[in-house]
């Protein structure tokens, strides 16, 4: 493998904006639909409105599978064909969802959207790595993440705005339009960054060997497992937050503002983590975040039980803000800790870690979400149980570390 690094061809501002758009399609596709879930359920005649949560979780199933596929594919055929193929699959998924007449058709479309988004989400990072390194790469990624963090804050507002003038199908039309814009912009302006001499054949043997190495390395597998446990209640929160805030607490059209404020807390946590992690270390940050979120969840579960699963909105918002702050610190650190022993297989390692942790989280997240019956106790108990399990797993993993 050559160490050849492609000279950047696009101006930095244009490249950062394009990569941020490609990566942000995931958050946009998920969060813009949140205000419309109840409308989708009614039009597709769902008897159990909890099933609208599957419109969110099916995206993550597709992403988990797609991450395993696009990394090796882009190493084999080049970055541009891999990204373009992924965006085309995403567009097909958008069309299926937009014209869905049954709930099953909707879920197939969302699954295809997730499968397709695995391309731009995974390969965009490789495109940055192909052209930048060291501090320059860190600078570019920080610019991209600044834009990326804004999307979960603004996407529900955008979705709600569309609903004032059109139906939920128009939201899919908007997402489809941005996907087409990203594809055309990428094809016309972004050169290929992986030269033919740097490519390597796509090999199932390599993927299986890397998977075996991760599963037999206590540090890599341990933190991958912890990431999955941490992501479980967070995914349940994303899937059910519309029912909780917009319906149970009757926020209505103000739901996107509340959701955006909580997303901003995650961005704040990422900023704080960036300032503190070099001084305190990742494990120090992770342990304290898990302890804080676990204590908050256990205490708030008792508080919520007193109110029959419907505590005052102000206390719920404070609790969720604490959880989002802790979660924002956990996500980046746990992924980095899982990757520490995998530097020699960083590309495929990152894909496997992301995919396995997502797949681990899915059954528990669906179980927690489907237990929702008009009160928030299942969600809070899910955060409590996963927090306590995470503490046990942290003890198990850290025992093997120096």
Any overview of this molecule?
The protein is mostly helical. The chain has two domains: 200 residues, MFS general substrate transporter like domains (Growth Hormone, Chain: A), CATH 1.20.1250; 200 residues, Growth Hormone, Chain: A. The protein is built from 14 helices and no strands. It is globular. It starts with 11 loop residues before the first helix and ends with a helix. The mean pLDDT is 89.
Please specify the SSE layout and strand pairing.
Layout: H1 12-31, H2 37-43, H3 54-77, H4 79-98, H5 103-131, H6 134-165, H7 168-189, H8 204-216, H9 218-248, H10 255-280, H11 282-306, H12 313-339, H13 346-370, H14 377-398
Proportion of beta-strand residues? under 5%
CATH architecture of the largest domain: Up-down Bundle
Categorize the overall geometry. globular
CATH-level-4 superfamily name of the largest domain: MFS general substrate transporter like domains
Question: Uncertain regions: pLDDT < 50 for 5+ in a row?
Answer: none
How far apart are the termini? 33 Å
Number of strands: 0
Largest sheet: none
Helix content: over 70%
Structural class: mainly alpha
The helix tally amounts to: 14
| CATH class label of the largest domain | Mainly Alpha
The radius of gyration computed from the alpha-carbon positions, rounded to a whole number of angstroms, is: 21 Å
Short description:
The protein is mainly α and 402 residues long.
